[in-house]
Amino acid sequence: MSTYVVLARRWRPRSFSTLVGQENVTQALKNAMLGGRIPHAFLFTGIRGVGKTTLARLLSMCLNCETGVTSEPCGTCGSCKEIIAGIHPDVMELDAGSRTKVEQMRELLDLVVYAPSSSRYKVFILDEVHMLSKSSFNALLKTLEEPPSHVKFIFATTESRKIPATIISRCQRYDLKRVSQVALIAHMSTILTAEKVEFEESALEVVAHSAEGSVRDALSLLDQAISHGDGGVRLAQVTELLGLSNREECLELLGNILNGQGREVLISIGVFYNAGTEPEALINDLLDMLHQGVRMQITGVGEEGGNMDSMANQLHEKSSEVSQEHLQMVYQMLLRGSKDLSVAENRQQALEMLLLRVTFLKPVPDLGKLIKMVNQSGVGTSASSGFSAVAATGFGAVAASPVAVPVAAPQLGLDQGFVTKPITSWHQLISSAKKSAPELAMKLEQQVACLDFYNGGDADPPRMVLQLVNDCFGPADQVRQRVSAFLKSIGISGEGVVVQPASDAIRPETIGEETARIKSEELKKLVEQTKEHPIVRDLSARFQVEILDVEPVDDRSVQ
């Protein structure tokens, strides 16, 4: 009686071109072989079942193939066959998890000095290298940095963060990616067609989803599915095998939850219970559908552009009827509630209470539609009187778009025009300086207070007494000279300028301090007016909204 070989072993890649989903890594290795730039140590990282050990064996075949160092090993010579069978004397594949002691590492390193017995290179493959002890890593350091020319090290690991940086820096690192669901489905279809096994595309989608990007996991599940389905791979048998929920029934359950139909939700839960569906699996399927629904609201396509067109369309129809905010809230409650299932004494009871809780969750309003409705109501359309608000509801803080509300715009009381002469006030002098001497104007605005200003009219030049706020502007005499020079540049005598040094005496506000105070006072008034506005008060009463912040907006931000 022949021994059955599982699909994952029987379909193990024998060349770089047949490795699934790792084109970036295989291309780099091919180029290294063709260009003769072969490092002495390789490090392959990635999740389980994506091809780390397979790559290590392929690399050994490339290095020791009897046809020469090549990127396409023949697979038929004695050396290639021995490596495939795992009996090559110069290719040692070791499990680092069972050789963690430093004494075992030293025994291994003692073999490094000996030349290969029958091949070009002596290759050491250490799988799960992160499990070596600290002492073993230290023993490996020097040899790994400068090994003999006939030695190559190949390390594989699922947890590169546990490997010391000193080891990683001595290796050429290659990160293997998760294999996409589309690539997994195509790979399984090819295998089942070659194996002459009947299958349903939807069943392969479920297997690929459960494999989470691992080719080995996908083929192991496929082996089970073939046995469970009596030689075929069908959706019903795969769903039963994995203890998953029926996706159509799960989609119907999600629709009942989003529509607030509690009685129908309880009936659906009973159906899943009788079918033997695990509560955790049902919650995970609901979370997955909510995630896809939110993605489709944003992008309009299914996850990874999958082939579930009919299901995706139904999901898109159900999710598009509900606001983005409500979908996010349902997802969050299911995610948190799923943790309680593991500690509940009666998991079915906990499942019912959790799903009923999200079913009767008060819908979170679509803020975009709500604001559009408010703007279309014809109340307050002046762009200059708009505000943007951050609202806090019972479900968390939500940022709202600009809303037009009739409130008074802040008046800063500072002349915005450019006046050359006559200069009739301190504000006017700074406004004039902003045009021709902006740096001087900024310093006068922030660091100089005006104690007295006398406008002499057309006959006499203006006289002013100024005081420095601090010494950052420079000495008082230097400031006086700069102000006088500016006045002369616009045709006014600067003889009447007096500047006093900074002191602790009480002084008037600078223009900058005055502007900041006026803005603060106007903003407080704006907040109060916003809170008392009829529309905002109505929203607060209906949706438990609290205004956290209000900011004036310019004309461009209100459409």
User: Tally the helices: what do you get?
Assistant: 23
Q: What is the 3D shape?
A: flat
Q: Report the mean per-residue pLDDT as an integer.
A: 82
Span of the ends, CA to CA: 78 Å
What CATH first level of the largest domain would be assigned?
Alpha Beta
Q: Please name the CATH architecture of the largest domain.
A: 3-Layer(aba) Sandwich
Can you describe this structure?
- α5 links the parallel β2 (91-95) and β3.
- The protein has five domains: 7-175, Rossmann fold; 181-242, Orthogonal Bundle (Helicase, Ruva Protein, domain 3); 247-359, Up-down Bundle (Zinc Finger, Delta Prime, domain 3), CATH 1.20.272; 367-407 and 533-557, no CATH class; 426-515, GMP Synthetase, Chain A, domain 3, CATH 3.30.300.
- It is an alpha/beta fold and 559 residues long.
- It has 23 helices and 14 strands.
- The chain has helices at 7-10, 23-35, 52-64, 78-85, 102-110, 134-145, 165-168, 181-194, 201-211, 215-228, 235-242, 247-258, 262-274, 279-299, 309-320, 324-341, 347-359, 367-376, 426-436, 438-447, 476-489, 511-532, 534-543; strands spanning 41-45, 91-95, 122-127, 151-157, 172-175, 198-199, 232-233, 386-393, 396-399, 403-404, 448-454, 463-468, 497-500, 546-552.
- A five-stranded parallel β-sheet has the order 2-3-4-1-5, with helices on one face. Strands 8, 9, 10 and 14 form a four-stranded antiparallel β-sheet that branches.
From the structure above, extract its key features.
single chain; Rossmann fold; Zinc Finger, Delta Prime, domain 3; 559 residues; four-stranded antiparallel β-sheet; disordered C terminus; alpha/beta; 23 helices; five-stranded parallel β-sheet; 5 domains; Helicase, Ruva Protein, domain 3
